[in-house]
Design brief:
The protein is of the alpha+beta class and about 120 residues long. It has one domain. It is about 35% helix and about 15% strand. The chain has a two-stranded antiparallel ribbon with strand order 1-2. A hairpin with a 5-residue loop joins strand 1 and strand 2. It is elongated and about 65 Å long.
């Protein structure tokens, strides 16, 4: 069985953050994105068990550097996280299940009327 700390940080969604980007010397544009992560993965980053830059998980919290991208975890990650973390976002509908079911019925009726 694999160790629990090895569980990868997998984004639930990746969204374009804004129309800005970084123009690289070869002409490519690297855009800014927002990663939507599970709450447990955000907590792992906040507590130093995952790299906030490349998402690499760590066996022990707050290593000196990330062994994949070389980011200075112990020295800089807390400040980077505080600067970059955008807060909690709710995914999915903001309606209750009964409201969703009511809207489905309403859509079905409208579709039937259009088909007549």
């Amino acid at each position: 069985m694999a160790e629990r700390w090895r569980k990868p940080v997998i984004p639930l969604a990746i969204e374009e953050a804004n129309p800005q980007g970084i123009w690289l010397p070869d002409g490519r544009v690297q855009g800014d994105v927002t990663l939507i992560l599970e709450e447990s993965d955000v907590d792992r980053m906040r507590s130093g068990y995952a790299c906030a830059k490349c998402l690499e998980p760590f066996e022990h919290s707050w290593p000196e550097r990330c062994n994949v991208c070389g980011a200075p975890i112990r020295k800089e990650q807390a400040a980077y996280f505080a600067r970059e973390y955008g807060g909690d976002e709710r995914l999915g509908s903001r309606l209750s299940l009964s409201e969703e079911l009511g809207m489905l019925e309403e859509r079905r009726r409208k579709q039937e009327e259009q088909n007549r």
